[in-house]
Write a structure and sequence with these properties.
The protein has 783 residues and is α+β, with helices and mostly antiparallel strands. Helices cover 36% and strands 16% of the residues.
């Protein structure tokens, strides 16, 4: 059973403590001397220790010297309550020492009968629970010594021999002591490599970059270094132990910030110390160290793990504990290392816009500075998006979201929705905020890209500055309000009812197709929720939110969800500085263009419509077949009276007879129009046939969908490949003043009341691989 023995000793006027554990074995003199030498950082082979104590409580006035194992046992048993007399230690350095080691210490293994050449290879082995103790010496100019103190001595083996000059007095007689083998001095202090891997003439962009590399190697290999020289011309690093030969010398290249390695000795001649918890607790991680680790673990990636995962990664690989804020700053530093700092982004924005227009023909950009040449507004419209919008439905959703890069401002998207209900970004803006001046400037620049026509419709929330900007610039266009944002305001004014039900009732009311049904439902809504209805009538008009009352053609779009989802897609990009954020947005738009171009071209020639409408009509075909007989009489009567078989006449006839108004608003046939078409096709007296895609708006045709994505969007190349004219380089842009906020940066805004919505079913806009195309061949009535 192990027992702790506490020993207090004094050497050169300083007090020290030892704690030794025994496992049923007595503590010997050699064990005690070895532990004291280790504590003091002394080489046991080069010094002698004289041990004595004064047993005052036993009535002795003379000092008692410890000369053998029996004296040690008497000393250990002389104390009470696990306390001993103070042991006085005197260090004696003999003039001459034999060329042999008096003690060889190997962890967890006995050296008796072993080959010392093999033991030499394991000199660095050390227990995991060992602690590193720094002991200071009294002599001036002597560096601190490092000693290894074993905490667990349950398996310590007595190795070596006692001093020949000591007389061993034992009543039991002399015992045979195996003499130690002759081993060359210094064999147990081998040189070891630092693991950094530098080479001569290697260059670093800055002195800080070189220090990051050395820091990482020092952390990984558990050694310390000292900066001896650091100025504009040179940078000299040496080992923390003065006797060690490890050093790095770098010099600055003239008129640059680059440092080049001139001298490098990668081998340490000091004693290598294994990693330990006590030593690592003294280490402190920095954002630069975290950034260097992220570059090695995730090379070239802007998206890195969350700070909590980074904290665990640093502790696992480097054995250092860092705070959450340090991990977050290191994550941001890694991004800055890849794409440059925020100040560099503002400085190079003119060059970036020049290259963007160079690689994407037809791109339009605008940049506005204030009177102090500081960044104020930015507008970008890609040439491929401008050209593709000409074959798209003329509905634009506009919204802004706040930036999280420390400089404030908002990111603005002006996006459409393609006929298959995908995002189609037309223009991007970076403004200083949502105010009258910024929104007015944005819509003035958007007017140069999207002309003002009565067919054009804007959808947005009810931001007063945004509404004013549209009204002052686009005179002929129509403007509708997002019914989801409006429903959140409406339910906030409802009393004594379930507010979520009020919001749901309002959205159902706003999506009614016919005027008669709307008037009936609106009366019921006002009777049930009078306070909410009063708020609607006082703050808005039904022509802005009711589908059946809206004067323009907005198709299925009645919310700003299209742009709201873009804000979520670029959630991480909004934390970047200006140019990295624009790169992330352009990259995503390019990916979308490539995917949808491939999707549009994947259909066969028989697929005349986009997958969304094709699937919709396919699902309605069976129900329309049942209504064919009913609709046949109506269409036949009208057809015989007019006697015209023109396409426009037939479409107008369908619109007139479809009382649901779905065909009129969505611009593709409802179940009634589809039944009328089947009835028309089944009429044997007709002289002209018609295909189903002729009844659908041209914006839903597959060929128009493919035209919207036929161009490719190219990314701006790396900065090293930029070819910028001197007049562009001469333009200066200063960054905005950084906005300092207290506390941790908020990533997500606080949700409003009732903002959590149930998940809606995904839109069926993918082509079905096993779907039969026979139903599109309308001459075949066998379906």
């Amino acid at each position: 059973m192990s027992e702790n023995v506490n020993i207090y000793f004094k050497c050169k006027g300083r007090m020290y403590t030892l704690m030794m554990k025994t496992s049923g074995e007595n503590i010997t003199l050699s064990m005690l001397v070895g532990r004291i030498c280790t504590k003091l950082g002394l080489d046991e082979s080069k010094v002698k220790l004289q041990l004595r104590y004064n047993a005052v409580l036993l009535g002795s006035t003379e000092e008692i010297y410890i000369c053998d194992d029996e004296d040690v046992g008497v000393y250990i048993s002389s104390g009470e309550n696990n306390r001993r007399y103070v042991l006085y230690v005197e260090v004696i350095t003999p003039p001459e020492l034999p060329e042999q080691l008096s003690r060889v210490e190997v962890i967890n293994k006995s050296s008796v009968g072993k080959n010392y050449a093999e033991l030499d290879l394991k000199e660095d082995e050390m227990r995991d629970n060992a602690a590193i103790v720094l002991c200071e010496c009294e002599e001036q100019g002597t560096e601190p010594k490092e000693a290894i103190v074993e905490i667990d001595d349950t398996q310590d083996a007595e190795i070596g021999s006692q001093d020949e000059s000591m007389d061993i007095h034992d009543d039991r007689g002399d015992e045979y002591v195996e003499p130690p083998p002759v081993v060359e001095a210094g064999r147990f202090k081998k040189e070891w490599e630092d693991g950094i891997g530098l080479i001569l003439r290697q260059e670093f962009p800055s002195r800080a970059a070189l220090q990051e590399v050395v820091d990482k190697g020092a952390f990984a290999n558990s050694f310390g270094y000292v900066i001896k020289k650091s100025d504009k011309e040179r940078y000299l690093l040496t080992c923390a132990k003065e006797s060690c030969a490890w050093r790095i010398r770098a010099t600055n290249i003239l008129n640059t910030s680059i440092y080049s390695i001139r001298k490098y000795n990668k081998m340490h001649t000091c004693t290598r110390i294994s990693k330990s918890k006590t030593r690592m607790r003294k280490r402190k991680g920095t954002p630069e160290l975290v950034a260097a680790l992220l570059h090695d673990t995730f090379p070239g990636q802007m998206e890195t793990p969350v700070p909590k995962v980074i904290m665990e990664l640093v502790q696992t690989k480097l054995g250092v504990k860092i705070s959450y804020s340090t991990a977050l700053r290191g994550k941001r530093q890694a991004i800055c290392d890849l794409k440059g700092s925020a100040e560099d982004s503002y400085k190079d924005i003119n060059c970036y816009l020049y290259m963007l227009k160079k690689v994407n023909e037809g791109t339009i950009t605008y940049l506005k500075l204030d009177e102090e040449d500081k960044f104020q507004y930015l507008f970008i419209a890609l040439g491929a998006s401008i050209e593709g919008f000409q074959v798209m439905r003329k509905v634009i959703i506009v919204d802004a979201t706040h930036l999280k890069n420390g400089y404030g401002g908002v990111l603005v998207f002006a996006s459409a929705q393609d006929p298959n209900r995908h995002h189609y970004i037309i223009a991007i803006g970076v403004l200083d905020g949502e105010n009258d001046a910024s929104w007015g400037w944005f819509f003035e620049k958007l007017l140069t890209v999207v002309p003002d026509t009565p067919e054009l419709v804007f959808m947005s929330d009810r931001n007063s500055s945004l509404i004013k900007g549209i009204r002052n610039v686009y005179f002929a266009a129509h403007h509708g309000y997002c019914i989801w944002h409006l429903s959140q305001n409406v339910k906030g004014h409802a009393t004594n009812v379930n507010r979520d039900v009020v919001a749901w009732r309002f959205m159902e009311l706003s999506r009614v197709y016919t005027m008669a049904e709307f008037e009936r439902e609106y009366r019921i809504f006002k009777l049930r929720y009078p306070s909410a209805a009063n708020y609607l009538e006082d703050t808005t008009v039904k022509e802005k939110w009711a589908r059946c009352c809206f004067r323009g053609q907005r198709y299925n779009l009645d919310t700003s969800n299209c742009v709201e989802s873009l804000n979520s897609v670029f959630l991480n990009a909004r934390k970047y500085s200006l140019i990295p954020m624009l790169d992330a947005i352009m990259s995503k738009i390019s990916v979308w263009f490539n995917e949808h171009r491939k999707e549009a071209a994947s259909g066969s020639n028989e697929n005349k419509l986009v997958p969304l409408v094709e699937n919709y009509l396919h699902d309605l075909w069976v129900e329309a077949e049942k209504l064919k007989v009913t609709e046949l009489n109506t269409f036949q009567l009208e057809y015989n009276v007019r006697g015209s078989e023109g396409k426009e006449y037939f479409v107008n006839l369908l619109l007139k007879t479809c009382s649901c108004k779905v065909f009129d608003i969505q611009k593709y046939p409802c179940v009634h129009a589809l039944a009328g078409f089947i009835a028309f096709e089944s009429d044997t007296t007709r002289t002209r046939s018609m295909e189903i895609h002729e009844l659908v708006s041209k914006y839903y045709w597959a060929e128009m969908w493919a035209l919207a994505y036929y161009r490719t969007i190219y990314l701006v190349p790396d900065k090293s490949q930029w070819d910028i004219p001197d007049e562009i380089k001469a333009l200066k842009v200063l960054p905005l003043p950084r906005k300092k906020k207290k506390g941790r940066t908020k990533v997500l805004r606080l949700p409003s009341t009732g903002e959590r919505r149930p998940k809606r079913q995904r839109t069926q806009n993918k082509r079905r691989p096993r779907q039969s195309l026979q139903w599109l061949l309308f001459g075949n009535h066998s379906i």
